[in-house]
Amino acid sequence: MEFANRLERLSPYVPGEQPKIEGLIKLNTNENPFPPAPGVKEAVLQAAENLQKYSDPEAAVLCQALAETFGLKKEEVICGNGSDEILAFAFLAFCDKDHPAVFPRVTYGFYEVLANLFQVPTRRFELQADLSIDPAECCQKGETVFLANPNAPTGILMPLSSVERILKADPDRVVVLDEAYADFAPENGRSLIERYENLLIVRTFSKSRSLAGGRLGFALGNQKLIEGMRRIKDSFHPYNVNAMTQAAGISVLKAEAYTKKTADQVIKTRERTKKVLKDQGFELTDSAANFLFLKKAGFEGKTLAEELRKKKILVRHFNTPGIEDYLRVSVGSEEEMDFFLKAITELTATEKWESEREKE
């Protein structure tokens, strides 16, 4: 059929593996090692008692709670079925043939997938030698910028001064600041919203708020931007956030102290693990996220990931030019990271690795 060729050309997003293997240490999808905040389970169960009714299409109570959390008006917040849906709304709302999407070649893979799906023209640029993003690449007029900050999979944070440079370069185009890992970073873009009408911040409950399985994302920004996003949502998926997820989100927002406590623990574990790896000769980016991005000279990333899997440790490897020898390792619990450190130390013992290669 005529449309078959177009569909075959689509390259869907490939999520991290979700295998069911007993005893597996899963460090490949940046999930939070801590459970959701106390009270979430009860809130979900209570919401489940009324599943015969539709959920609130405006997610009004949840949006109000988010507005209060971030010091905004409810009209400056929109919720989605995960931040991926929010990003899809942004592509539909702010990109077309006259407003192409621009993003780094090495970044969150869903940007390219969404651009292809919605037939949005794109301009992709290379990272700098140190894997950071050159803000000058994002300053061309007329382009809609998609900027993961901290970037994925590198974890590198662009300073707010550089973000402002991008926002100022063209006040008439939208800059989408994807801050999935903001709560693990020393700074974020929230303070810029009142000053820049062209800024849209995208966040998620999947990382710092331990609701990856609940699928809840949101965006913060100028009321006009949010209204445009809402028109897209209501034209596509009015009841996009189910009642149980709304209840879970509201409950989590009542426990911000818990979120901060667990995020601080992830940061502490990240920095401890980073130091151990550096002392062992690994090269790491200065990750400001809940994962590490690392490599060691003389060791192939793909092979190392396969060897870790044999030890029941799952990490993420990207077969992408320029980062093919790196591994992205989610920050798990202290015990999980100790197990990881022991395993990767054994695997990267030079004598053992060389002897294994000699057998090939």
Helices and strands, with pairings:
Layout: H1 4-9, E1 25-26, H2 40-48, H3 60-70, E2 77-80, H4 82-94, E3 101-104, H5 110-117, E4 122-125, E5 144-148, H6 160-169, E6 175-178, E7 199-204, E8 217-221, H7 223-236, H8 243-253, H9 256-279, E9 283-284, E10 291-295, H10 301-310, E11 313-314, E12 316-317, E13 327-330, H11 334-347, H12 350-359
Parallel strand pairs: 1-11, 3-4, 3-5, 5-6, 6-7
Antiparallel strand pairs: 2-8, 7-8, 9-10, 10-13, 12-13
Key attributes of the depicted protein:
Aspartate Aminotransferase, domain 2; 14% strand; Aspartate Aminotransferase, domain 1; globular; 7-stranded mixed sheet; 13 strands; 360 residues; alpha/beta
3D architecture notes:
This protein is α/β, with parallel strands linked by helices and 360 residues long. The chain folds into 2 domains: 4-33 and 257-359, Aspartate Aminotransferase, domain 1 (Alpha-Beta Complex), CATH 3.90.1150; 40-255, Aspartate Aminotransferase, domain 2 (3-Layer(aba) Sandwich), CATH 3.40.640.10. Helices cover 39% and strands 14% of the residues. The protein contains 12 helices and 13 strands. It has helices spanning 4-9, 40-48, 60-70, 82-94, 110-117, 160-169, 223-236, 243-253, 256-279, 301-310, 334-347, 350-359; strands at 25-26, 77-80, 101-104, 122-125, 144-148, 175-178, 199-204, 217-221, 283-284, 291-295, 313-314, 316-317, 327-330. The strands form 3 sheets. The protein has a 7-stranded mixed β-sheet with strand order 2-8-7-6-5-3-4, sandwiched between helices. The protein has a 4-stranded antiparallel β-sheet with strand order 9-10-13-12, covered by helices on one side. Strand 5, helix 6 and strand 6 form a beta-alpha-beta unit. Helix 3 packs parallel to helix 8 (243-253). The longest helix is centred in the C-terminal third of the chain and has 24 residues, at 256-279. The chain is globular, with a radius of gyration of 21 Å. The protein starts with a helix and ends with a helix.
